[in-house]
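#struct-queue
[09:14] JT: dropping the first one here, sequence first, then the structure tokens:
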Amino acid sequence: MTNYQFPAHFWWGSAASGPQTEGCVSGDGKGENIFDYWYSKEPEKFFNQVGPGKASQVYTKYKEDVQLMKQTGHNSFRTSIQWSRLIPEGIGEVNPKAVEFYHSYFDELIENGIEPFVNLYHCDMPMALQEKGGWLNRETVEAYERYAKICFELFGTKVKKWFTHNEPIVPVEAGYLYRWHYPEESDMKQAVQIGYHEALASALAVKAYHEMELEGQIGIILNLTPSYPRDEKNPEDVKAAAIADAFFNRSFLDPAVKGEFPQELVAIVKELGIMPAINEGDLTIIKENTIDLLGINYYQPRRVKAKETPIDQENGPMPEDYFDNYQMPGRKMNPYRGWEIYEKGIYDILVNVRENYGNIECFISENGMGVENEARFIKEDGMIHDDYRIEFVQEHLKYVHQAIQEGSNCLGYHMWTCMDNWSWTNAYKNRYGFISVDLSNDGKRTIKKSGYWFKELSDKNEMIL
């Protein structure tokens, strides 16, 4: 048997977001965001037509939920402030009911020994700003900077871990390349502008936080998907993987940590004639306001080969003009989500951060396994026996431990998610939580087997396998 001992004060917990958990309550004063709007117009695009209003009712159940976090070994927990809840129109008046809610929520966490990690933006653009272009509009960057400052002023004395964005590549990919999310566009020029504005907004929030001299750290949460070439000895495959990495990882990782955009990506964007609009002084702001702390979301690898299929000249340009995706024979899969399970990827990310990004302080901010119809795993004790989730986390933690032993500055592990939550167009199709949520019974919470296992792991700060 092997004892995997983790460093003292390791962050054990989970991650969620405001728009995926809080729900909507009559009279709460929350404004409409893009998912609220999209669901109202096209509910059929959401699994079982379940929309964000039926998220897991954290707005009214947060005190119960914090007690469940204690019972599942949390010493830290990440969520997000909903921009459209705090400032319903994105600009203008602050919603006092939101201020009261978030103060009470964060106080409840702190009083129970759970440190709140708070993210500012989790794909939930206020609809009033989206109607003016959303991240395409430079005014949104200015509105976000104001929003960030308001959050720091309101909650900065009690929240010590802040994050500017969660997965900023998602609005780029999902909204403006692949039509997965509203506004369902496919325009790489727009996608580039949106990514640029998100990176600039992040740097402005970092600048504002540091200027306020608050006692804490500010970072960003990035979903990093290591790009593996089909054949490491084939230069064309290796080049294709490097370009995919520049598009989907380094596009935000480099400016956040190094203060500059990857040159390979800049060269492609210039060649295509789709450079974003850059104001004087912007690049200096990005250069001089890098993050203190990096959150790493890891779910799956990206496998890449040299371009072999014809380029779609009519519906481009697209990132896939420069590579083809590759399905590795014999890969292990999560059949419910359609994602490859490759545990070593989490180690490779941490090694890359250590070797190429100054070994910045970091933590695993999301990692998890979505499974459909988990009720079939309920046993006579009334609990979901999700041994598959325990095994999934164990196998990833082995590699996290190895990376730490080799010098990685990894400070914690947060699973996605605390309790089953609403997940964009998938709604509740796949369940990820340590705690189940029964939608048919007023959102009744029940700890799964994995939640009790995680409590033991956190209490002992070690894993014996």
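[09:21] JT: and here's the second one, same format:
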Amino acid sequence: MNTDIGTVAIIGGTGPQGKGLALRLAMAGVSVVLGSRDASKAQIVAEELIAQLAELGTKSANISGLSMEDATKVATDMVILSVPFSGHDATLEVLKPLLEGKILVDIVVPLAPGNPKAVEMPAEGSVTEHAQALLGESIPVVGALHNVSAITLNDLSRSINCDILVCGNDLAAKKRVMALVDTMGTKAYNAGLAESARCIEAITPILIRLNISKDVPFSHAGIRICPPEH
């Protein structure tokens, strides 16, 4: 197991994005606990993911399922929030007392209702900033993993095809999250303070638009930072 990372909780871990992250992290030796409103569902999904990894040769995957409250409690210091934006605030209100001393990794994008090709940002400017305002400054919020598709995460036959932009107001927290991303075999970049999430989150509907377009010969594309070749 990757003991440097500890146990990571994924709230909303039974959804496509959460399951993909759980698979990637567990395959890298990270201990993962899925958090759901339905603890029994979380455990069933955890067992399914373990079986999937075992078929691919990863025999020692450590994935469990609990209620979202218990999952948050057992996380070492990182809790990933992977829920629809419609349930974002209600979930944080429940978890807020349990997040002291932990980092919230908010991967939620505020896609417009009925139109995934647009965003409707909260008043603070982004979901990352909104979460920070809800939780207060004592709980660091890091925005990350906004621009990688669930299908990409779940396709373990291929490496993740994009870089990950990470933002937040706490540098130490960002470095912890960047180290977590590194375990999944892709590159994380420090993209600045939480206000950078206004741009990062807004990239997602652009990617969705491109990925469903008949004018481009691909789908499930992400973004990559391309340094000069010379």
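[09:30] RK: nice, looked through the second one.
[09:31] RK: The helical segments are 16-27, 39-55, 68-74, 88-95, 127-135, 150-154, 171-183, 197-212.
[09:31] JT: good to know. The mean pLDDT is 95.
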